[in-house]
């Protein structure tokens, strides 16, 4: 990207048009590749920051979630766009617990999830979360048996409006927001209060079968 104003404006317009047309959020590097300038992700990032400032406070916003950029309706206007539609299937209590454990302790194996929950976890529960696009297989633990380990996805961050996992709320925040029933407290305290996360050593593996 040069200092020429016309070139900068052309890049801004190209990035804006690409994101409007994109079916999925995009990273700065992916945008640079799409625009034929793979050696200039910094210039694309500068354009993204300029567009984010331009759209701030407008009816739509440019946001970054987990390193991926996309346009979304301003939160205070979301009610204007609601339409009658079939309610999506709600997560079961077991799926909600498993999702919370994965988010707060990733990467984590099914055996580790069961140790935290204190009960066995059906493979179908993890399948539901992966079908929703919120949990993915991230590799295998480098221990005997090499169990599959799970982590959250960029779609999980985008759905819950998080820039990164560092923005996950703590127990006090969840309770203050009225999102915890008394019966949930013990499980959530155990999920968030674990002294340390499980070991992270793992190798990437595309296999989705669960052998732990």
UniProtKB/TrEMBL annotation:
NCBIfam families: SMC-Scp complex subunit ScpB (TIGR00281). GO terms for biological process: cell division; chromosome separation. Residues 185-212 are annotated as: Disordered. Gene3D superfamilies: Winged helix-like DNA-binding domain superfamily/Winged helix DNA-binding domain. The keyword Nucleotidyltransferase does not apply. It comes from Novosphingobium colocasiae. Pfam families: SMC_ScpB (PF04079). The keyword Cell division applies. Keywords: Cell cycle, Cell division, Chromosome partition, Cytoplasm. SUPFAM superfamilies: Winged helix' DNA-binding domain (SSF46785). It comes from the Bacteria. PANTHER family: SEGREGATION AND CONDENSATION PROTEIN B. InterPro entries: ScpB_csome_segregation, WH-like_DNA-bd_sf, WH_DNA-bd_sf. This is Segregation and condensation protein B. Residues 203-212 have a biased composition (Acidic residues). Signal peptide: none annotated.
